[in-house]
Specification:
By secondary structure, this protein is α/β, with parallel strands linked by helices. Helix content is 36%, strand content 13%. The protein has a single domain (2-24, 57-67, 75-279), classed as Uracil-DNA Glycosylase, subunit E. It has helices at residues 2-21, 94-99, 103-110, 145-150, 157-169, 195-212, 222-229, 235-238, 256-261, 266-279, and strands at 24-28, 42-45, 74-76, 129-130, 136-140, 178-181, 216-220, 243-245, 248-253. A hairpin with a 2-residue loop joins strand 8 and strand 9 (248-253). The radius of gyration is 19 Å and the shape is globular.
Length: 284
């Protein structure tokens, strides 16, 4: 009995730590009557402070389509960044992840991660690349074949287009920004990650963003926007409108791979990027 109690306490601590790193700060339960179904847990996301990485003016608080700040929300726990049960094996690395103070520390804490089935067919973990104190972070969906082979996000044809956006459009170096993905391992056949796979990686992405402390996030494609913002609003409605993730302004836009198939929409992405540049105080 004592051993079972200790195991239960350990698993509970691991789940709470996993949820905290995923952004849940409290879970309020309403006691259910004998005739009523159990109440659903509701989670409150913790705001993360943005950081001024350079001398440009600090960005204003992000808003929705109108530019006004979105109301704080208390959202139902749903499939997304921190919604599923803590994956098996999480308790062994939760404390190490929480202690990670740098991206190198975080990569070490992730180790040879096997928290979800994506580990079975990957070549390697694709963690992230770029400036660890970047003012701007790009978040994609997950690694493709080229990324899986090289171990770096956005290195194929879509990656070259992203590099062109950064270097030719924004007149930055690729190394000036930080680039990562929602999941760190390639989904088989480039399918969308499953909710449990996103949940397994959620604390890793959340901690990456927390360590870098960017002034602006850009989500690339519908999946990254849906996972980070925990919404199902179509990307055609999200793109070009300021959103917010834990106090950080977020600009959703189309994925570079989509632009390879639909080059006529490059002008829309350039409109989005110009908004990002303006918020960062960069010259047009």
């Amino acid at each position: 009995m004592a051993q079972d109690t200790r195991r239960l306490a350990r698993d509970l601590r691991a789940h709470v730590e996993w949820a905290r790193l995923g952004g849940v700060t409290e879970v309020a339960l309403t006691p259910a009557s004998a005739d009523a179904p159990p109440a659903r847990a509701r989670a409150t996301r913790a705001p993360a402070p943005s950081a001024a990485m350079a001398a440009a003016p600090a960005p204003e608080r992000a808003g929705g389509a109108s530019g006004s700040p979105p109301a704080s929300r208390s959202a139902d726990v749903s499939p997304g960044m921190a919604s599923a049960a803590a994956p098996a094996g999480w308790s062994s690395r939760a404390a190490e992840l929480a202690r990670a103070a740098t991206l190198d520390d975080l990569r070490g804490a992730i180790g040879d991660c096997r928290l979800c089935r994506l580990c079975e067919r990957r070549t390697q973990i694709v963690f992230g690349v770029g400036n660890p104190r970047a003012r701007l972070v790009f978040v994609g969906e997950g690694p493709g074949h080229d990324e899986d082979v090289k171990g770096e996000p956005f290195v194929g044809r879509a990656g070259q287009l992203l590099t062109d956006i950064i270097e030719k459009g924004m007149r930055l170096k690729r190394s000036d920004v930080y680039i990562c993905n929602v999941v760190k391992c390639r989904p088989p056949d480039n399918r969308n990650p499953e909710p449990d796979e996103v949940a397994a990686c959620a604390p890793f992405l959340a901690r990456q963003i927390e360590i870098v402390q960017p002034e602006v996030l850009v989500t690339l494609g519908k999946f990254a926007a849906h996972a980070l913002l925990e919404t199902k609003t179509p990307i055609t409605r999200l793109r070009g409108t300021w959103q917010e993730y834990r106090g950080i302004p977020v600009m959703p836009t189309f994925h570079p791979a989509y632009l390879l198939r639909n080059p006529g929409d490059k002008k829309l992405v350039w409109q989005d990027i110009k908004q990002v540049m303006a918020r960062l105080g960069m010259p047009p």
